[in-house]
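Cast an eye over this sequence plus tokens and walk me through the fold:

***
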Amino acid sequence: MGLLDALRSLTGPKAPRLATPESGAPVVEVGHLEVHSAETLLIVVTDSSGAAALREVARAAEPAWLADAPSTTRVFFSPAPRPEVPVRDPKKGWAIPLDLDTRAALLETLRAEPGDYEISESLAIVVEEN
């Protein structure tokens, strides 16, 4: 029995899935990118180019990395067929899943204009001026 099998036997089939970053996904360079957590809420702070990239990830339902070269911050956004738990890997960065409802809310709510956008109970986007 491997480690994953042991975890499944402890948590059962209804355990939440963890988001997993894909190293081969395309990387989109943005001017500014930060991630903060407040209890169960993740707050992604970016600029208008990051907001546009997030809208494209939601529209295309294709995974992508957003990267802020000056600070080496990297965030992996991945369409997920069902809700998953965001994960922060100290070496790779954040992996934030985007289920169908979250992608729809991103497209409906997020704009490439400065402002605070509450996407879901667990995700907010802050767009700052360039």
Observations:
- The CA atoms of residues 25 and 68 lie 16 Å apart.
- The mean pLDDT is 89.
- The first helix runs from residue 3 to 11.
